[in-house]
Amino acid sequence: MTRRRLQCVLASLMPLALALAVTANASTLPPTLAQAALDLEAWQLEDATAAALLLAQGSPRDPAVRGLAAAVLHQHGAHADALALLSGVPAADYPPAEVRARIAASAHTAAGFAERRSRHFVLRYRDKDEVTATYAEAVLEAAYTQIGGDLKFLPAERGTPIVVEIYPDARSLGDASGLRPKEIATSGTIAICKFHRLMITSPLALVDGYPWADTLAHELTHLIIAKKSANEAPVWLHEGIAKTLEARWHGPPGPLSPYSENLLQDAVKRHALIPLAKMHPSMALLPSQDAAALAFAEVRTLVEYVVGAHGLDALPRLLLRLRDGSDLQAALRAALGTALGTLAAAGRAGLQRRPFTPHPDAMPRSLRLREAAASPTGGKTAAAPRLSKRRQAVADAARLGELLQLRGHRQAAWLTYRHGLSLTPTPPPDLLLHAARLAAELQQVSDARRLLRQLLVAEPEQGDAHLLAGSLALKQAELAPAQQHLEAARLQNPYDPSLHDGLAELYDRQKKTTAAAQERRFAELCRRPRPAKAAAATAGPKALSLLSPAAASLRQVLCFDTTSEPKERARRSTPPSKHE
Fold first, then answer.
1. Helix, strand, or coil here: 376?
2. 397/361 Cα distance (integer angstroms)
3. pLDDT tens digit string along 378-432?
4. Cα torsion angle, 91, 96, 99, 101, sign
5. CA atoms within 13 A on the CB side of 191
6. In this structure, are residues 19 and 6 in contact, taking their beta carbons and an 8 Å threshold?
7. pTM for this entry
């Protein structure tokens, strides 16, 4: 079957320039090599690996074969070996320069990674990110079963484990993925599915963490879509399915966030929805975080319309039609009995009828990187939006309450917070959280719990609110709600030592001695500073645990066939860290 070239590329796939470079580069290869390169583009890593192994067994010193093998091993996560192979491959040959740069950056950053294995995943991380990696195993396996079942495709069943890499900061994620710092800052992109791997930024890199578990499930959904459709799904479909299914690992999809619902309602009123075509080639290239949030809300509601009208099975049917060579219009007609224009119009009509709930004081969920927050501007690149008189009064009360609290005037701070809360039926989350914390300090537990309930209705994933609610429940010996809240808190920011102290106490009371011991170790780990440097990149046997049998054989044939020369080449070719 002849596969069409990349029609769309999103933040979770290759940037457009890279896609064109790969296609042009692959076209100069001999037929078998070219088909293997196209298999990589189509996310058919298993087929590309089998072809590369066959070629390597016949011509292990051929630079073209070694270039292909380097691209294959890079996608398996064996970055140092991939870098070693490239040293003998002419720069003009496959893979293209952009891929080579990503291999070099990945080899450097991943050199210090430790790893864990679950049934279908290899999780790679540095030092303190063992915490996230440990919790992520259960999340990923649940997402694999549930989302893979929804889309009727289980991506690791051919023996290739899915590599998950947790990068210590956004810069190293950008170096490994090719995302530019401006794209990360503008769109808020902190995770990506690319090169057949799930790559996320550590929650520790953000001031308040982020919903890393749903993010991992979102990126896994992209990998499933890319493999099932042979990378032929357009960006709006990719993102719409991923946003719709990302929470399926723990339950049904939740509602849109209040702020996203406001954005969507406003765009419908102003006839300012983002056309599907403008989402190509990547959501990360949209001009602002608001534009990205609006686009995600649009495509999610469109996919929800498809599921409501045609059933969940319509999604895997559509992906399969795309894989089999149908263009988008033909695939839509075959799977849904409609054309793209008709579908888009029906989606817009549905939004016109949607009973929006107004959230006048809703604010965007801001993702604040620690490195940006530590800069002279505090990570703020634009002026704060102008507030209505009421919202300004609420904000002033919140700020004054914080100042009074910092100066030890707790009763005055409490009265000020209460005044701010009285000014609006939908107080901002920060005000609710500050007031709840102070109420807890003042032993006004019922007030604290009331405020936390109100906050968690508006922001169900608010990690600090769950941590406080869990701590209050634990003090009252209410073990079930304590467990519910504390385990929810770790899905947002698992690096707060007090969270692990609370979980250790909870599990001790529940006689879960192994879990309690793990939490005490995590509490100690979270109290330590992160080491400043990673190890140097070296090719070597450690990478074998990442690989499928075919990939391990390929690696052995090319990297360790007669000499240890590749190991030395990797040491010489590793670039210095940008951050040292």
1. coil
2. 15
3. 554 444 556 678 889 999 999 999 999 999 999 999 999 999 999 998 898 899 9
4. positive
5. 25
6. yes
7. 0.88
